[in-house]
Amino acid sequence: MIKSENQNKKWIGLLFAGWLTVTAVLFLAGLSGDVAEQLFGSSKHVRNLIQGLVMSGLVVPIILYLYQRLYRMTGIKPKTPIYSWKRGYHFFTGVLLAIALGAMGFIIASSQGWIVIEKWHAPDQWFVALLINVLFAVLYEALPEELGLRGLLYDVLRHRFPAWLSVLLQTLLFVSVTTAVALFQAFVGLAPGVSLDVSYIVIIFCFGVGLQLLRLWTGSLWASIGFHLTYLEIMRFVVLPHVYGVPPIITYQDSIHGLSFLFAIAMMQIGSIIVSLVILSAKRLIRKGS
């Protein structure tokens, strides 16, 4: 009985430690960028680089340490962890899936007359900016968030719950990270990094489910990282380029304002969930038949 209670405490403590690491460091990273900009007049690129270095520099080693605690607690250490470089080729699985879904969305929208593509801009107008943003996005968002949320937190939850419930709970924790950081920023007098409304919460909830399912059928966290990164770049360089102050890859007009934004999100997020569920179901049927 005592041993069981100690295991429960360790499990809860590990879950909370992983969640708190991502949440606290995300707030700290945003704060460090704001401080650098206000005190030293840092440029936007320097500010973003500082945020990324703080985020990955703290989250990655702490989460990897917590993973060792998880292995000791469960007594199970995989030969090839889901974050191993040996699984890194699945990074391109995530990249290609996001590109395919995004491209399909624009093809469908264009063929139906929902958007009118006016001009494709030459790579020399946006390629360097895209590469710079890729660096920032990997360090600040894709790598630390996937390692902490779709990696550690899911594996801790999976130790106690079935896969479907672990996916749901992990996604709720993902939503709570963003919510907690925004609320704490407002509490200390900083401008929240995101606007908390129902539509935004629905978007990040679907995003979290898709990313987690992608990790499940590929068996690699790198697939989630690749999809996460590519999704961000498509949103920033195609769908909403002016919001981020970067040159677009294409210029187009919506038949209804905001339609391309909603359709692109639906294609990439809902599309990734559907594709993942189909593949997971097919793999399950194959295992049953063998």
UniProtKB/TrEMBL annotation:
Domain of life per record: Bacteria
UniProt name for this protein: CPBP family intramembrane metalloprotease
TM helices/strands, residue ranges: 12-29, 49-67, 88-114, 126-143, 164-188, 194-214, 221-239, 259-280
MF terms in GO: metallopeptidase activity
Ranges of residues in domain CAAX prenyl protease 2/Lysostaphin resistance protein A-like: 129-230
One family name in Pfam for this protein: Rce1-like
Keyword list, A-Z: Hydrolase, Membrane, Metalloprotease, Protease, Transmembrane, Transmembrane helix
